[in-house]
Amino acid sequence: MPILRTLLASALLLVFGGAVLTVATDGFHAFTSETARRLAVRREPPPVPAVTLETQSGAHVNLAELRGRWVLVDFIYTRCLTWCLALGGEFAQLQDQLAAPLADGRLVLLSISFDPAHDTPAELAAYRQRFRGRDHGWLVARPTSEGDLQQLLHTFGVTVVPDGIDGYVHNAAIQVVDPQGRLVLILDAGNPQAVAQLMRRKLP
């Protein structure tokens, strides 16, 4: 009988544990917070806050002004020697691969710095120039207030942690904002061809 009770208790624990795991991982689909975030964005796209950014030319643009277009967004800081270099290279490739919708205004590339104290318009312009980025279709910008920066990081799910040597550790992705101003998709960095193909399907 003690053995039977032990087996029964073990079975109940397994069932209970499996149920908890199923709920916690969204039916076993989300084993990481990043996966969970991507699933949540697909199900309920959050609106992008209508904050004002200062661009590489010193001009100011409110994100609400970009509604009516598709926007590909990445988050960078100009001193970064890892992910941000890769993302800059990918956006430069996307300028070539999506030249037509960028030229006629159906699509915008937007790199947002999360280091606005250092990344002045001159630094932002130099970052884009490093990749031979052209004027049409690619904005490199910084938030104009700390509150706006925090809103953006929260909405886009970007984690930024000082690394102790005057830089940052951060996650990286290409994020897709639809013409209604909603974050609808989060894409892996590292495959600009796949991003270009996806946007060609979405653009009218």
TrEMBL record:
Entry keyword annotation includes Disulfide bond: yes
Residue ranges of domain Thioredoxin in the record: 42-204
PANTHER family to which the protein is assigned, alphabetical: ELECTRON TRANSPORT PROTIN SCO1/SENC FAMILY MEMBER (PTHR12151), LINALOOL DEHYDRATASE_ISOMERASE DOMAIN-CONTAINING PROTEIN (PTHR12151:SF25)
SUPFAM superfamilies in the record: Thioredoxin-like
InterPro entries associated with the record: SCO1/SenC, Thioredoxin-like_sf, Thioredoxin_domain
Any one GO MF annotation of this record: metal ion binding
Tagged with keyword tRNA processing: no
Keywords, comma-separated and alphabetical: Copper, Disulfide bond, Metal-binding
Residues reported to bind Cu cation: C80, C84, H170
Disulphide bridges, residue numbers: C80-C84
Protein name: Electron transporter SenC
